[in-house]
Amino acid sequence: MSSIKYEVVGKVAVITIDRPEKMNALSLDNQYDLDAAWKQLKDDSKVVIGVITGSGQRAFCVGADLKDDKSLSDRNVGKPADYAEASLFPREYDLNKPVIAAINGHALGMGAAIAMQSDLRIISSNGSIGYPLVGIGMMPGALHDFWMASPAAVANYALYTGDPINAEDAYRAGIVNEISEPDDLMTTTMDLADRIAGKAPLVIQAIKRAWDSQKEFREVKAWRDFARMGTRVDLSEDREEGRDAFRQKRKPDWNNR
């Protein structure tokens, strides 16, 4: 049974990562299911806007399931920089509709990247956004979206330290649009989604296309550099050491290779 749920409510599609017992961490199978959900959203002619969220109130998504020995990044190693067997991030699907991230708790690593590639973000008051992967020897995914959406001092501090940004600081930095109480998060998000879904769909699609185009124009070199540097990290001994240390609940012994 898939842990990625796809539901249409009126003109809004809601994608839910449904692994609350794992804080909505994504195994390889979950990553393929999320890939399928993004494709369904793209092709769903009844839908004007999408929402991505997680089950429960503890976590939106804490990233890849590091207890799973497989990941998409492992399977993509050695392939051309523009190759992906499957993906997780909404902007890689050339969607013709905007996406709202309803961040119900912690959005970390891959979860932060998914949230930052969404067009709008509403976070619960107990939520946070961060990239802790520097502590386990892994490259943060799609980090340039985080840089471009955040003040440099905020983004760099979070990336270099691995410390997450809490809801209040994320709002002050302009990283999220709104803070909601946990019990009200989906109501607040769906109210916004319904407001947008009631507008002229051709205009919504045109705004989305224009927004994505200008971002892609600025990001071409960044994506290429990210793919090259990410592959170097993915093939490193330190990446394996970081994952082993995480599983064994010990401090990593970095070798810088």
**Total count of helical runs of at least 4 residues:** 9
Low-confidence stretches: 79-85
Estimated radius of gyration: 18 Å
> Could you say what the CATH topology is called?
2-enoyl-CoA Hydratase, Chain A, domain 1
Instruction: Supply the CATH superfamily name.
Output: 2-enoyl-CoA Hydratase, Chain A, domain 1
- Amino-to-carboxy terminus distance: 39 Å
Biggest sheet, strands in spatial order? Answer: 1-2-3-5-7-10
Q: Work out the helicity level.
A: 40-55%
The domain tally reads 1
Provide the residue-averaged pLDDT: 85
Report the structural category: alpha/beta
Approximately how much beta-strand content do the residues carry? 15-25%
Report the strand count: 10
**What is the architecture at the second tier of CATH?**
Alpha-Beta Complex
Please write the CATH class name. Alpha Beta
Q: Report the order of strands and helices.
A: EEHEEHEEHEEHHEHEHHH
Q: Which term fits the overall shape?
A: globular
Largest sheet: 6 strands, mixed
